[in-house]
From TrEMBL:
Coiled coil: none annotated. Residues 278-301 are annotated as: Disordered. SMART domains: HTH_XRE. InterPro entries: Cro/C1-type_HTH, Lambda_DNA-bd_dom_sf, MLTR_LBD. GO terms for molecular function: DNA binding. CDD domains: HTH_XRE. The lineage of its organism: Bacteria, Bacillati, Actinomycetota, Actinomycetes, Pseudonocardiales. Pfam families: HTH_31, MLTR_LBD. It comes from the Bacteria. It comes from Saccharothrix australiensis. Residues 40-86 form the HTH cro/C1-type domain. This is Helix-turn-helix protein.
Length: 301
């Protein structure tokens, strides 16, 4: 056995030992209630958390293939390795010491912030890398969800699409919208394949939702464009809106998403109802809309 083969074999044994020591709860996996035949995580669970195929991870454990720095970094995070364990893993793989490579946290561009503040009658949000929700205006919170109540690290549009029951109920064609979101992230993954936060997001959702896992494996890609979506809003009922995407010149990784309606249409009336409420109320529940006769917000107060 050559030196490289020996190191691969040792790397595989190290991964197997760390996998056996990590419980599903420690890895952030949902409890299934089923009895496990072996302690720790299964191979497919580690692979999902690291956003790689089960077959590839199996060959890594068997010492049959080398691992890139990006894969090792993803495995180190999936297995919750400390600094010493990361260093040892890197040595076995013949790589530089693995350290999380995190880009600086995005903050909304000042011009976009001012634009959001001026768009009082148009729901709008700013999406950043990985579909993170960077900023929003009050009308977007009234239409979609109260983003301010979501912990900062969880404030990601794709994550909400798959984990928030209210978001699933909001879209009448949830499956098509969610599938498009996955395709958008898949395209971004081609540009930033080593982004640790993106890898962690893919691993998390792959474990939690079989449809995400299926769609991610299909490698479909799309670009943000324009379209029409029907939302089943809990207050104003079904509302069909046009959405558009504007890319920020100062930071192309930030995009303004807006929802609008043709003036004079029922959808426009419903947006006016929500806009009227957000202008005069800071807390509480938006006013209910009587069946068949939406109130005119211009007569409010």
């Amino acid at each position: 056995m050559s030196g490289s083969d020996a190191h691969r074999s040792e790397l595989g044994e190290f991964l197997k030992a760390r996998r056996a020591e990590l419980s599903p709860r420690q890895a952030g996996l949902p409890e299934t209630g089923t009895v496990r035949r072996v302690p720790g995580l299964r191979r497919e669970e580690v692979a999902q958390l690291a956003a790689i195929s089960t077959d590839y991870y199996t060959r890594l454990e068997q010492g049959r293939v080398p691992a890139s720095a990006a894969v090792l970094d993803a495995l180190a995070r999936a297995l919750r390795l400390d600094d010493d364990q990361r260093e040892y893993l890197a040595e076995l793989a013949g790589k530089d010491v693995l350290r999380p490579r995190r880009r600086a946290r995005q903050t909304v561009q000042p011009t976009l912030r001012r634009l959001l503040d001026e768009l009082r009658g148009i729901p709008a949000i700013v999406l950043g890398r990985r579909m993170d929700i960077v900023a929003w205006n009050p009308l977007a919170a009234a239409l979609i969800t109260d983003f301010g109540q979501i912990p900062d690290k969880q404030r990601n549009y794709l994550r909400l699409m798959f984990t928030d029951p209210a978001m699933r109920a909001l879209y009448t064609d949830w499956e098509a919208v969610a599938h498009t979101c996955v395709a958008l992230l898949r395209r971004e993954a081609a540009t930033y394949p080593d982004d640790p936060q993106l890898i962690a997001l893919v691993g998390e959702l792959s474990v939690q939702d079989p449809r995400f896992r299926q769609w991610w494996a299909a490698h479909h890609v799309v670009g943000r464009r324009i379209g029409t979506k029907t939302l089943r809003h809990p207050v104003v009922g079904d509302v069909t809106l046009d959405w558009d995407t504007l890319t920020c010149t100062a930071d192309p990784e930030q995009q303004l998403i807006t929802w609008t309606a043709e003036p004079g249409t029922p959808a426009d009336d419903k947006l006016r109802i929500l806009a009227s409420w957000t202008t005069t109320h800071h807390q509480g529940t938006p006013p209910a809309v009587p069946a068949n006769q939406p109130p005119d917000p211009r007569k409010d107060g």
